[in-house]
Amino acid sequence: MAIELVHVGFNNVIVMNRVIAMASPNSAPTKRTIQESRTKGLLIDMTNGRKTKAVILTDSGHVILSALTPETIAGRYRQVEPQEPSGR
Description:
The chain is an alpha+beta fold. Helices cover about 25% and strands about 25% of the residues.
């Protein structure tokens, strides 16, 4: 399995193989998750002071904040994900 890196803004990249979910930061449960991860020391802020538009949850329990929307990150992932070889 190849490691798939995706640029999430401001010269930051994440390993998409470790991502469980991406969410908008607007809901109360997501805000609670951000606060809990901050107190546990598992919050990674990759916004460079910009507004948080995506919350990325990883399999290691880390929560990553990004200034890009989940749609933009997913689109970038689709561009770099390896294509299945055609059955020629």
